[in-house]
Design brief:
Length: 616
């Protein structure tokens, strides 16, 4: 009897098909992850464009920076070089350099074989232009030690052993600052002759025919907003210095802002585009929050802009216009014309500016979040510097070593100096010691009835901080500074107490230099208004700041990342499920294959038995 043939099962093909069906949910999750990553990239791109807008806007500078953008030129920079120092009127000036400033240099005739040669008991006296005499001697008994003592004193004269020929050294003394006010006279015990090899001299220039003298060759106070560096006399060929507002830089910076703003719009439009299908739509298609950035920028441009004089300007006067298609156009010639006709108004409309009508009150700078507006200010208390009035004592012998321990807000410092032949000379030495120790104090001579009798110390800083002085009892300097006070008053009706002269309110860093006399003259309080305008650049910078780490675009990117992380974990978990599922069905198919093999074996046996029966 014939039996049916039992076939084999294509296990791998069936398992592959079953796994493909079972993997469909995971494939869908992977597609969703890819879509979210594309959205992340779009949000990052928008954030980058917003940050670029902030950078371009901030390039216009902070408070009052635009007014300082100037172009200065010299017709002969080899004689007079120039640089801009800030705001100033446009001007032309003729400069004749009659003579350059020089620092005095003195050479001592004594010749030494080495810097370590014994000083032979020599001592040196230096007298400055004010008549103060100071004496110096070597601490280690060498001529080099004498030079070191002079340099350590920090008195404006440097000393060195100059090798005038091989193996021959002479003491050279040079003023560290040029000008006749820094001249000195050198004399000494045990020394030979002192020869002035280069006298102290002031720079002499004629500015439009007017003779001007200064102690240095770097002069910043004869042409408003211009620093002159004198390099050589001009002879018969005067130099023309030109200073003008750098309008070309302003125009270029405004163009960069407009380009950056348009880039935000282009990126946002591409990301939010709604097409006919997914392939023609942007990754953020229909996302309202992403599509509003250009609207916000356009609204900022459309707002009236306050000028320096309170005049209201429009963006069109600055060469910026809005187009129907959502883009922005910049016309450089229009901005240039406004800068030429009313530069102060244009600059105030573009960048941050501040003003104050209260005596002594200024806006020093701004911090993040400063809001435009006008604020009423009343100053009722002036800031004062703490002082220590020294005791009236007899001046110790000249050359007495003194050491003060100064303890204040910056810690403890040691101030060392020697007493001089007078209180004036001693005060000069104290000031050198304070400077060398980094202590923010100034010494002055205490006088009573026209007679010098001691020393007073005044803190450089304003406010109520206290500094304690110890160790100076024999010169009357022991105790603590007193009398400091912080400026105080109200701003918009809210009381403030400044940190010395400075306080922050509404993002404005306000400086109160109003003095007690001004307050008394005004009847007990100085009043006025402090005004701040953000300018177009400030408004656009604030919009661009949304591209920062805490801004909405990167916050949306972060939210997507959280979703991606969660879905990635689900994909990973699904991998575990698929592995188990595949193991299960493989086990089942293995069992089936075993049964099939057994059936095939039985079929073969039956076939052989049938064949034996038929032959018997």
């Amino acid at each position: 009897m014939a039996t049916a043939s039992v076939g084999s099962i294509d296990t791998e093909s069936i398992i592959t098909q079953l796994m493909a069906v079972e993997r469909n949910p995971q494939d869908l999750m992977k597609t969703q992850i890819s879509t979210m990553q594309t959205k992340q990239n779009a949000w990052q791109a928008i954030a980058d464009k917003l940050t670029a807008l902030q950078t371009a806007s901030d390039a216009l500078g902070g408070l009052g920076a635009l007014a300082k953008l100037r172009t200065v030129t010299s017709t002969d920079p080899t004689s007079v070089s120039v640089s801009s120092t800030g705001a100033g009127a446009s001007t032309n000036a003729t400069i004749d350099v009659v003579a350059l400033a020089s620092a005095q240099s003195v050479l001592v005739s004594d010749v030494f074989n080495a810097t370590t040669d014994p000083d032979g008991g020599r001592s040196l006296q230096l007298t400055d232009a004010g008549g103060t005499v100071r004496s110096y001697s070597s601490a280690d008994g060498t001529i080099g030690g004498l030079a070191n003592a002079i340099n350590a004193a920090g008195i404006g004269v440097s000393a060195r052993l100059l090798q005038t020929s091989p193996g021959k050294y002479q003491l050279a003394l040079t003023a560290t600052t040029s000008g006749t006010a820094n001249a000195f006279t050198a004399a000494g015990t045990g020394f030979g002759t002192f020869t002035t090899v280069r006298p102290a001299a002031d720079a002499q220039i004629q500015v439009d025919g007017v003779l001007v003298k200064r102690s240095t060759n770097i002069i910043g106070d004869v042409i408003d907003g211009v620093q002159l560096t004198l390099l050589k006399p001009t002879g018969t060929a005067p130099v023309t210095i030109t200073s003008a507002r750098d309008t070309s830089s302003i125009v270029a910076k405004v163009k960069a802002i407009v380009d950056a703003a348009n880039a935000v719009g282009t990126m946002a439009a591409a990301a939010t585009k709604i097409g006919t299908d997914a392939s023609t739509s942007g990754p953020l298609a229909g996302d309202y929050s992403a599509s509003t950035y250009m609207d916000t920028i356009r609204n900022a441009i459309a707002q009236p802009l306050s000028s320096a004089t309170g005049k209201i300007m429009t963006a069109s006067a600055l060469g910026i216009s809005l187009n129907k298609d959502g883009t922005i156009t910049f016309t450089a010639s229009a901005l240039q014309a406004t800068l030429d006709s009313m530069p102060d108004d244009a600059i105030a409309a573009l960048g941050q500016s501040a003003a104050s009508t209260a005596d002594g009150v200024t806006v020093a700078s701004t911090v993040t979040g400063a809001k435009p507006g006008i604020h009423a200010i009343v100053v009722t208390q002036a800031a004062l510097q703490p002082t220590l009035t020294g005791a009236a004592v007899a001046l110790p012998a000249p050359g007495t070593a003194e050491s003060l321990t100064v303890t204040g807000t910056n810690g403890t410092s040691t101030v060392t100096f020697n007493t001089g032949a007078s209180w004036a000379e001693t005060v000069a030495n104290v000031n050198i010691g304070l400077k060398n120790a980094g202590v923010a104090m100034t010494a002055s001579v205490q006088t009573s009835g026209g007679v010098d009798q001691g020393i007073n110390l005044t803190e450089t800083r304003y406010g109520t901080q206290t500094t304690t002085i110890a160790g100076g009892g024999d010169i009357g300097l022991t105790g603590a500074t007193t009398g400091g006070s912080n400026a105080a008053g109200t701003m918009d009706g809210v009381a403030f107490v400044a940190n010395g002269r400075t306080f922050v309110s509404g993002g404005l860093v306000v400086s109160i230099a109003t003095n007690a006399t001004q307050i008394a003259t005004a009847g007990g309080s100085v009043t006025g208004n402090v005004s701040f305008t953000q300018g177009l650049a400030g408004a656009l910078s604030a919009i661009g700041a949304q591209g920062g780490t805490t801004g909405p675009p990167l916050a949306s990117k972060a939210t997507l990342q959280t979703q991606i992380d969660q879905m990635t974990q689900r994909v990973s978990d699904f991998d575990h499920y698929l592995s188990q599922y595949e193991s299960t069905i493989r086990a089942k198919f293995t069992s089936m294959q075993t049964m099939l093999s057994q059936l095939q074996s039985m079929q073969a046996t039956v076939t052989r038995m049938g064949a034996t029966t038929s032959t018997g």
